[in-house]
Structure formats: C-alpha cells, structure tokens
Amino acid sequence: MKGEQFQAVRGMNDVIPGVSEQWAFLEEEIRQWLRAYAYREVRFPVVEPTALFVRSIGTATDIVEKEMYSFVDSLNGEALTLRPEGTASCARLVIQHHLLYDGPQRLWYMGPMFRHERPQKGRYRQFHQCGVEAMGFAGPEVDAELILMTARLWQRLGLKEVFLHLNTIGSSATRARYRTRLQTYFSAHTDRLDEDSRRRLGTNPLRILDSKNPAMTDLIENAPRLMDDLDEESRIHFEKLQRLLQQNGVEYQIDTRLVRGLDYYNATVFEWMTPLLGAQSTICGGGRYDGLLEQLGGKPAPACGFALGMERLLALLEQQPHWAQRFGVHPEVYVMHQHQEAWALCVAETLRSSGLAVHFHAGGGTFKSQIKRADASGAGWAIILGEEEAAHQKVSLKPLRGQGDQLTLDVMEAIQQIKSSE
Length: 422
Ligand code: ATP
Ligand code: MG
Fold this sequence. Notes:
Layout: H1 20-35, E1 40-41, E2 47-49, H2 50-57, H3 62-67, E3 70-72, E4 79-82, H4 87-96, E5 105-114, E6 126-135, H5 141-157, E7 163-168, H6 172-187, H7 195-203, H8 206-209, H9 217-221, H10 232-247, E8 253-254, E9 266-273, E10 282-288, H11 292-295, E11 303-309, H12 310-318, E12 333-337, H13 341-353, E13 358-360, H14 367-377, E14 381-385, H15 387-392, E15 395-399, E16 407-409, H16 411-420
Parallel strand pairs: 1-5, 7-8, 12-13, 12-14
Antiparallel strand pairs: 2-4, 3-4, 5-6, 6-11, 7-9, 9-10, 10-11, 14-15, 15-16
The structure holds adenosine-5'-triphosphate (ATP) and magnesium ion.
Organism: Ferrovum myxofaciens
GO cellular component, one term: cytoplasm
InterPro entries: aa-tRNA-synth_II, aa-tRNA-synth_II/BPL/LPL, Anticodon-bd, Anticodon-bd_dom_sf, His-tRNA-ligase, HisRS-like_core, HisRS/HisZ, HisRS_anticodon
C-alpha cells in the first residue's frame, strides 16, 4: 500500500537548498553585526512555562488571548507554551542565572517563535526572530544605541525604504490615566468598535490602538493622545533620545498611535516599517521594558530591546536585483571514477584535506554520463580515475570551464594546479 504523503503544518515553512544559503548568509551578517556592538548570544528553550508569557506579555493581548501554542504535558501536568517571542525567556534566563550581578548585560538570541496567526505572506505560525536586549541600562543612550544598531544593519544589508517610527508610552501611572481617557472616548463610540476592541475596552483599551482593522482607522486616529499627558521623567527621556538620534543623523517619525502589542513596554517604543511588504509592514519592533525583570521575580532593573523578523528581512532582500543568483553553491572539484571506488574515495578525501570542496560521483555509469553530471554540478574541475590512471598511479585533471587541456598528474600536483587557478 502506498504510504500517505505528509505536508508541513500550515504556516510553518521548510527551508530547501537555494533558500537555506540565503538564511545562512543573513544569519552570518547578523552575527558579525552584533559582534561590532559587543552583544553576546544566549540560547533558551523553545518551550517555557505558560505563566511566563501570560505574566509578561499580558492577558488582554493578541498573543496571549489567541496566538499561543499552549498545552499540558501529559506526563506531569505542567502547563507549557511554545515561545511566541524571546524577551520574556531572555529576562527569565537573566534572572535565573543572576547575570545582572556581574553588571548590565547586552544580549542577543536568534531562533524560531510560534504564534497561531492566519498564515499569509510575511506572517507565519513558525517564524524566526533575532532579538537584542540591553538589560540593566536606564538609557536613553542605550535606546539610541539600539536604534543606531538597527539602522546600521539595514545599511549593511543594502535595505532601502525602511522607516523608523518612534513613540513614548510613558510610565505605568501615565498609562493608567491614559487608560481612563481612552475608555471614556471609546465608550462613546462602542457602535464602531469591533468585537475584540469592545472586549478590550474594559480590560486593556490601549490595545485598541494596535488594532489592524481598517474600519476603525478613523476612530483610532481621533483618539486622545498619551503624549498630551506625559509624565515629566518620560518626557525628558524621550527628548534626550530624540536629540541623540538627531545628532547621529537618524531620521524618524513620531507616531503617537504606536503602542506595540505586548504589555511589558514603557517609555520608548519603536518600529521599523517598510512600504515594500504589503500588510506585513513592520520588520523590527522594540522599546523599553523597565518593569519586566521585577515583574518576573528578579531585582528591579531597567531594560530595552528589539526583535526583528527574519522572514520579513529575507523578503526585503529578495527584492534586490540578482539576489537569488548569489546563492548557487558549487563544489570546486567533481571526482569521476570507474572500477576504482576505493581509490576514488581516498582521492576525494585527500582533496578535501587540502581544503577543496569535492563532489564525489556516486551511482556508476560511463565516463560520458559522468561528465554531464560533472558539468551540471558547476565544479571548475573534474578528476578522472580509470584503469589507465590506476595503472600509472596518476590522476587525470580536466578543466570544466574555459579552455585548457586535460593533464595527467600526481594527486598532489593536481591539487596544486586547482589551487593555483583559484
Ligand atoms: P505584527 O504587528 O506584524 O503582528 P508584532 O507587533 O506582533 O508584529 P513583535 O511581537 O513585535 O511583532 O515581533 C517583532 C517582529 O517579528 C515583527 O516586527 C515582525 O517582523 C516579526 N513577526 C511577528 N510576528 C510574525 C509572524 N507571525 N510571522 C513572521 N514574522 C513575524
Ligand atoms: Mg502580531
């Protein structure tokens, strides 16, 4: 009986050759970029206690209300969740390992996140983030550093048309006052609120501002602004940050409706947006979360960070001319052989020991059919090992691109010839 064919889970992507090289390129660029800022990598599990996310991200948020992959471990009854983001885990890790005892920490992570969203271009159920977190710094110079950092990455990757949207959401006291003002305003317009927003009116009216429902755009546009009733400390922080950005030539736009979709933020919030990706316009989002470490049981410590969406970055990179062509991967040498398997394997290993990338022919066939494979492999050279070569303990070296004659050489001479042509 023919076996059932499986498909990857909806909204979760495979990465196949041709694309995997693009991922590796982006990841390496990111690693180098982070090194230049002296941030250090952390790795934490893909699964965490559900309560970690509920307490940090907030109950009345899209993520916690409807996007988390939560389950009960049937073996011990633990409530677990596939991580929907990294900041909460990173804060947990910092607290658990007492990292702040050694002073402030600049950290980063990269890896898959999981959210049960409606899959569409740029929005997946398993997606990848690179997150950068500066913990123990009150800022605003660290806020500025993080923003300058992102700007440098776009520059490094040659991305154009990415724009910085900046806002401050003040202290928790400011937001508590603002909540009341928003409740008053939206309560007068309940007929124009969608179901989610009506529910949030009581619990978390700031979230209404984050709604992506186009029918509510006008209503949100005319809502009272937090900025008009900002606390003094946040105002000074925000002004300093803006000065630092201006003095460093970073352009931005103040967006008073920008609140971010997670509850742990305060003061600075920002997003980098692009008009080139349709509805999924944010490639990077972040801000300050001064209360989070204490909220998760750690000593109070200020913190600031951001996460960038790797799939969206790759989608932007794909729009660059000749992007995909850069990722053909070719061996340097193709080893052809007939009736000489053991020797051919040995020669291939010797070539690799000298640092060459070698495609070993497998599956037999005539030299005529092998040479077709060798050409298709994109290798620059073929090594041919037949009875003739074996008898003389020599190899034949054939250039596959350009002109030049086939040569009969010792293995070491052949290696030299290949390497000197690089
Ligand atoms: P969005 O408003 O697009 O839903 P978000 O505010 O929920 O984004 P964050 O939690 O701030 O996103 O995550 C940071 C970045 O991760 C986003 O700016 C985006 O680039 C990326 N991202 C978030 N959710 C997804 C997803 N489901 N698929 C792909 N990328 C995502
Ligand atoms: Mg979202």
